[in-house]
Specification:
InterPro entries: Aminotrans_V_dom, PyrdxlP-dep_Trfase, PyrdxlP-dep_Trfase_major, PyrdxlP-dep_Trfase_small, SP_NH2Trfase/AEP_transaminase. By secondary structure, the protein is α/β, with parallel strands linked by helices. It contains 14 helices and eleven strands. Bound molecules: pyridoxal-5'-phosphate.
């Protein structure tokens, strides 16, 4: 545990009521939107559930793209709300293809909503968002994007892409707290949400948030907002803005390239072979047959740098190196690669650590 003054987290001043609107506007600027940005006072998976619960209704037809357990959950919440859900599953652990989405949309009439995850931290993939956004637009469908992992690490231009609802968590690419999340909501999406039969008086109700905060002039938030979370969010936004969002994204790209080059030079096998289909947040390797990622991730060297097994169907064969947010740095990438080298070597796999370090350095200094 790093040394820090946890007592400084106590007795914080309340977050000022006028501050929430400013935070929302700063998030809107980071993700390129003029749409409303609202807060859900919980981790991002709750914001996703709120969006599905508020949008879903009998008669709504959704194309739900599943590339990880998050997409799977989202489809389940839509169904629970009464929606008809057409599920499009990518190959386990891989991005969906544009062709598969085009085919699914061509074969279905009256799709009201297309939902997908942008970049996956579960497997390290990136879905082809601009192409899918174009297809959704042609169909006149609402587009919901889980950008929890990608915000801050990948280009995310909400209005240019025509994203109706983007769900954001500060805790990944933006390097902020995990206990607060945000959604951007387009006028069209509000129309679809603000119905007489939509759930009310619930933490999952986006209409509650609209009535109680947006329509009330964006002052104080409902309940007892966590000062801890909002102060931390403000600090995270300060840090991202000081660096500049474009520079932060470029840093993630560099971390991704360094991790990929280093792991390849090491002799490891990258799970996502095309850089353009890989997330800039985590880099994933496919372990040789017979090795178990969950076991390797328990090795002290792996724990020390936060290596983890994949999530989902192919999880036990995938080892993930996290270079998200402040971890998108040369030191973190190098430490991660050294840890991968150590656990692989001790598992009997030949590795070339010197070549790996040279590859990282070459990328970081170029
Ligand atoms: C991390 C993440 C979430 C939300 O996770 P929480 O830990 O609940 O905040 C949702 N979707 C994706 C793609 C994620 O990477």
């Amino acid at each position: 545990m790093p040394d820090f003054d946890r007592h400084s987290l106590l007795d914080l001043p309340p977050y000022p009521a006028a501050g929430y609107a400013r935070l929302a506007d700063r998030i809107a600027a980071l993700i390129g939107t003029g749409n409303d940005v609202v807060f859900v006072q919980a981790e991002a998976v709750v914001a996703l559930e709120a969006a599905a619960t508020s949008l879903g209704r009998p008669g709504l037809r959704a194309l739900n793209i599943v590339t990880s357990p998050y997409g799977e959950l989202f489809g389940g919440w839509l169904k629970r709300a009464g929606a008809e859900v057409i599920e499009l599953r990518a190959e386990p652990g891989l991005p969906v293809t544009v062709e598969a989405v085009a085919q699914a949309l061509a074969g279905a009439d009256g799709i009201d909503l297309v939902a997908l995850v942008h970049a996956e931290s579960a497997s390290g993939i990136l879905n082809p968002l601009p192409e899918i956004a174009e297809l959704a637009r042609e169909k006149g469908a609402l587009l919901l994007v889980d950008a929890v992992a990608s915000a801050g690490g990948h280009e995310l231009d909400v209005d240019a892409l025509g994203i109706d609802i983007a769900v954001i968590g500060p805790q990944k690419g933006l390097g902020g707290p995990a206990g607060i999340s945000a959604l951007s909501v387009s006028p069209r999406a509000w129309q679809a949400i603000d119905r007489t039969d939509t759930p009310r008086h619930s933490v999952l109700s986006l209409v509650d948030i609209k009535r109680n905060w947006l329509d009330a002039g964006r002052g104080v938030l409902s309940g007892m907002p966590s000062a801890l979370e909002f102060h931390a969010l403000e600090a995270a936004l300060d840090r991202v803005e000081a660096e500049g969002i474009a520079a932060a994204i470029a840093r993630h790209l560099r971390a991704q390239r360094a991790a990929r080059a280093g792991l390849q030079a090491l002799g490891a096998r990258l799970w996502v072979s095309d850089e353009n289909e890989a997330s800039r947040l985590v880099t994933t390797i496919l372990l040789p047959e017979g090795l178990d990622a969950h076991r390797l991730a328990q090795h002290g060297a792996a724990v020390a740098v936060g290596l983890s097994a994949g999530v989902g169907v192919v999880a036990s064969r995938l080892l993930r190196l996290d270079h998200t947010g402040p971890r998108a740095s040369r030191d973190t990438v190098l430490a991660g690669i050294r840890a991968v080298a150590r656990v692989l070597r001790e598992a009997g796999v030949a590795v070339s650590e010197t070549a790996a370090e040279a590859a990282v350095d070459a990328l970081w200094t170029s």
